[in-house]
Design a protein that fits this description.
Blueprint lengths: L1 H13 L1 H4 L14 E8 L6 H15 L9 E8 L4 E4 L7 H9 L10 H13 L7 E7 L8 H9 L2 E7 L5 H7 L4 H4 E3 L9 H12 L4 E6 L4 E5 L8 E9 L7 E6 L4 E4 L7 E10 L7 E6 L9 E5 L5 E7 L6 E10 L6 E6 L4 E5 L6 E10 L4 E9 L7 E8 L5 E7 L6 E11 L2 E9 L5 E4 L7 E8 L2 E2 L3 E4 L9
Parallel strand pairs: 1-2, 1-4, 4-5, 5-6
Antiparallel strand pairs: 2-3, 7-8, 8-11, 9-10, 9-12, 12-13, 14-15, 15-18, 16-17, 16-19, 19-20, 21-22, 22-25, 23-24, 23-26, 26-27, 26-28
Length: 488
């Protein structure tokens, strides 16, 4: 007889898991942002069967939510002789992890010290983000909960919403004082075998508290804005009506209809440095949803040229570039440049599609003032200047001679114009085999003025360049006409 009772008890604990499955809108997955602390009675006043049923109920209640920061965080505190923190708010970031943890929770037994557990909840919530809504869901049989009035009042004063689910043994007056209004959606008294019937209503009550119904501006420029929201519809359940206008209604209002699976939109052709208000209304035949609103101010206008840069600098040229490129708003660009302090000023005119100009015929080692001007379609002219220096002309090698030494060997000798040389860079072609050769190079010290090259390839080009702090000077090259003594 005893064995039969255990089998029935086991089946009773397992079967409700499937019966607790309810139809859920897909939008619940990304609907909310908030912290939910489960306060689960694990004292000896609950039978193991009741405790298991409460765990199954909590698991199914939370299953639809997306977890983690920016979504829903869940913590579990067990009530026994002592408060036992099963896991904190930042432990589970995925449903698989949360569901596995809930399946492994063990019944504590012992006394019902709810007050100690509430004090621990208070302390834990003090360390969390104050801007995120918080829910305390108390699952209890309600038997001798203790003097919970004071800690519950303090929690509610912290902005915590208290919801209670109790079995029929509950002290209704104590629980009534504990919950946050409205009572009809925040306080449930139900037989443990029928607890699944309140799952959908309780979930909706929680969602109302932590739903992140915010219309946010995630990117702004002087002429555009990207709005983003958490989806509350699906493609089949309705659509969104978006309207936006400047706060002072200086332009005609704009309206758009967006599909139900939309979650962002980019507004373009806005006025710079202007405050706008936008309204997003979800339209659905299934339920009434509130309108979302946001105000934002576009950035001040950025007129080209806002950035001017110099590159490709050489002894006789520099390249000047500018940004942003605004072809539809610019008539032409003008580049003026002259040596500082009083050099001749030259001018280059370019069309609106150009964003750079190569300035050539410059003096080496000279500082220039370069001014880029843009004539805009509205007649306004914007200019920006930059200083740029051309590179010095590095002295070249004065003389280079090749003298045969032995078969496939040659002595290379050279002279330089002036001091300041940091070394020499020599390159040549080496004979590897009768049918192959390879290029070789070497750096020689500034005191070296000659070297001997071996295994020289037929008609090898031998080049030597002086090395200065700022780069290589012009080098000289000679060609070996033969392996023996015919060199030029």
């Amino acid at each position: 007889m005893h064995a039969v009772f255990l089998r029935c008890l086991f089946l009773g604990a397992m079967l409700p898991q499937s019966s607790l499955q309810v139809g859920l809108p897909a939008t619940v997955l990304n609907c909310c942002e908030g912290d939910i602390f489960l306060l689960l009675d694990s004292s000896g006043s609950l039978a193991n069967y009741e405790f298991s049923r409460m765990l199954l109920f909590a698991a199914e209640l939370l299953r639809p939510f997306s977890l983690g920061r920016g979504h829903v965080r869940v913590g579990l505190l067990l009530v026994g002789t002592k408060a036992n923190l099963e896991f904190g708010l930042d432990v589970h970031k995925h449903q698989e992890s949360l569901q596995k943890a809930l399946q492994s929770v063990r019944h504590l037994q012992g006394d019902t010290n709810t007050v100690a557990a509430l004090r621990m909840v208070q302390q834990l919530l003090k360390e969390t983000d104050k801007t995120v809504p918080k829910v305390l869901l108390w699952l209890t049989d309600g038997v001798e909960p203790g003097d919970v009035d004071t800690p519950m009042t303090e929690l509610k004063a912290q902005g915590v919403s208290v919801l209670v689910v109790s079995t029929v043994h509950a002290n209704y007056q104590v629980l009534k004082r504990a919950v946050t209004p409205p009572l009809q959606s925040h306080l449930y008294s139900v037989d443990i075998d029928s607890i699944n019937i309140i799952a959908e209503d309780l979930r909706e009550a929680i969602i109302k508290i932590i739903r992140a119904e915010r219309l946010s501006v995630v990117h702004l420029t002087s002429h555009s804005a990207v709005l983003q929201w958490r989806p509350v519809l699906t493609a089949d359940s309705g659509h969104y009506e978006l309207s936006y206008n400047s706060m002072f209604k200086t332009d005609k209002g704009n309206r758009r209809t967006l599909s139900g699976d939309s979650s962002w939109i980019e507004l373009t052709n806005l006025h710079p440095d202007t405050t706008y208000t936008a309204h997003l209304r979800p339209e659905s035949n299934q339920r009434l949803l509130g309108m979302l609103s946001v105000n934002f101010t576009t950035l001040p206008d950025v007129l080209t040229p806002a950035v001017v840069s110099v590159s490709d600098s050489g002894p006789h040229q520099i390249r000047v570039s500018w940004a942003p490129l605004q072809q539809s708003r610019v008539q032409r660009y003008t580049v003026e440049y002259g040596a500082i302090p009083s050099g001749h000023v030259r001018t280059v005119t370019l069309n609106s599609q150009e964003d750079s100009a190569l300035l050539s015929g410059l003096e080496p080692g000279t500082e220039y003032l370069v001014t880029v001007s843009a004539l805009h379609m509205n007649g306004k002219e914007v200019a920006m200047s930059v200083r740029a220096c051309t590179q010095d002309v590095l002295p070249s090698l004065a003389d280079l001679q090749l003298t045969p030494v032995e078969h496939q060997e040659v002595q290379v000798a050279w002279k330089t114009h002036q001091e300041g040389v940091k070394g020499y860079w020599i390159s040549w072609e080496r004979q590897n085999s009768p049918s192959s050769s390879s290029k070789s190079s070497a750096y020689l010290s500034p005191t070296a003025h000659s070297t001997v090259l071996t295994n020289l390839a037929l008609r090898s080009r031998v080049c030597v360049s002086p090395v200065y702090n700022s780069g290589l000077g012009d080098g000289l090259c000679c060609t070996a006409e033969s392996h023996t003594d015919s060199l030029s």
